[in-house]
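Aim 2 progress update. The chain analyzed this quarter is reproduced below.
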Amino acid sequence: MSEQRKEAPGLDAALAQDLEKRLALATPDDTARGMFFNGALNAVRILGGDAAVERCLASVTEKKFVDFFNYPVSGFLKLAFTGAQLMGPQLGGFDVMLRKMGTQATTDFLSSAAGKTLLLLAGDSPKRLVTNLPTGYRAAVSYGERSVDWSGDRTGRLIMKRDFMPPAYHEGVLQAVIEALGARGVQVHGKQTGPVDTEYALSWQ
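Predicted structure tokens:
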């Protein structure tokens, strides 16, 4: 088995199989910013301390990540899956921890120059912010296609093609993005439509 497809240590069989399928579809050109790695590690550190972080880092070759450097998404998958299984029991499950990682990633991104630009362009409109999200994603990752389909002023769908993270992660991302502009009653529900394709139903009050 190649280095790229090596299973993260400690995953149960079902998660390891899901991870393996996602890794098999990723190429060395598919990269994500270091801030997402650091966001996942920060979420793990808050719950499990440095020892838990070390266990996550054991699943990847890099030991430190620079926020705006690009790293293979295969490493992010391994790190996130390991951290979500490790810390999930404290929160209520694997998916709950993935959402927390997505929320942390959003907090970090929105405090960056690219994130602040996205907020500035949105003004006070959550709808405008979501409409601009495909551009935001392009600034943060090298892979995938994303589009928005609106059914109302506060309801719509974000469609992701060839994005490697499970739906729960982006549920956390999207909820935090919309709430960043003060929206209330935010609902985000992800549905996997292909091996690495997902749709997210969005609404707020």
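The chain is about 55% helix and 15% strand. Residues 1-9 have pLDDT under 50 and may be disordered. These observations will guide the mutagenesis experiments scheduled for the next reporting period.
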